[in-house]
Amino acid sequence: MFNGILIEKDEQGYRASVQALTQADLPQGDVLVKVDYSTLNYKDALAITGKGPIVRSFPMVPGIDFAGVVEQSEHADFTPGQRVILNGWGVGEQHWGGLAQYARVKADWLIHAPDGMSNRHAMAIGTAGYTAMLCVIALEKAGIRPDAGDVVVTGANGGVGSFAIAILHKLGYRVVAATGRPDESGYLSRLGASEIIDRATLSAPGKPLQKERWAAGIDSVGSHTLANLCASIKADGAVAACGMAQGLDLPASVAPFILRGVSLLGINSVTRPRSERIHAWNRLATDLPTAIIDSISRDITLGDAMQTAQDLMAGKVQGRVVVDVNQ
């Protein structure tokens, strides 16, 4: 027997609770992992609260990522005792996820944890930090260097935004943070933001082509924010888009892309090839200071996750939440 959060939906309604499960309950897969830590992402909060159509089948264990130790394996790439990380692949949505003490998954979804990175730190980083690193790598591939000019990060207080600021600062970029919580500017400055702007300056409908302000951007918001961001990027700049907190729409014109040569880089963190995942996680092990990871993360128990999911949906959570599934 082991504990996990189970989401159920039936004639009695939609509900999530900590329940006792057995390994026989787990779905098929060729690697059994004893989970040490998971985390609480926006998707997980949507799944637990039922405020978004995240879960595709019921019952479901949420948790889109986890870190743990291989207990059993039928795949040559993984042996018992090895530390592993999983992000994405529909885990926690279509396949039982990481908010439980055990998970059984496909080996192709796993990577080995980088040397020198603990499982706890891996989940303090989680999908949020991994996605932020993918965004930074995409900007680098687009030719954006620190001397090109400022990089603006939207959704700065969120997980992706927080890590994006810290990584960019470590790499020598000057970072502008866009946030709806100006009272938390001290937090953003400690991460490495040189300038802080109110998200309201980007979130309302704007002109299709605006004053050139930034060399690049990382956006986790979408909708008008992304449109205004693209309209304000300097010639030959780029925007890495990885989220849709404001909306799925993009009320923009082609003007920034044609008249200024701006590149819009879509970041799909869910189904990246293993080689790209390994590269991103190895970069995180070197380009993200441990002190930053500790400063923006806190631990909760499995039982705390339901209330914390409500708090996250209400915008009351700052930084990263690590779930110790064995507490």
Distance between the termini: 15 Å
Average pLDDT score: 95
Rg calculated over all Cα atoms: 20 Å
In which range does the helix fraction lie?
A: 25-40%
Order of helices and strands: EEEHEEEEHEHEHEHEHEHEHHEHE
Alpha-beta classification = alpha/beta
Q: Give the biggest sheet.
A: 7 strands, mixed
- How much strand content do the residues show? 25-35%
Notes on the structure:
The chain is α/β, with parallel strands linked by helices and 327 residues long. 30% of the residues lie in helices and 28% in strands. The protein is built from 10 helices and 15 strands. It has helices at residues 42-49, 119-141, 159-170, 185-191, 200-203, 223-231, 255-259, 274-287, 290-295, 305-313, and strands spanning 2-10, 13-21, 31-39, 65-73, 83-87, 102-105, 110-112, 151-153, 175-179, 193-198, 214-219, 233-241, 263-266, 297-301, 320-324. Helix 10 links the parallel strand 14 and strand 15. Helix 2 packs across helix 3 and helix 2 crosses helix 8 (274-287). The longest helix has 23 residues, at 119-141.
Characteristics:
Oxidoreductase, ADH-like_N, 327 residues, alpha/beta, 15 strands, 6-stranded parallel beta sheet
Kindly summarize this structure in a few lines.
By secondary structure, the chain is of the alpha/beta class.
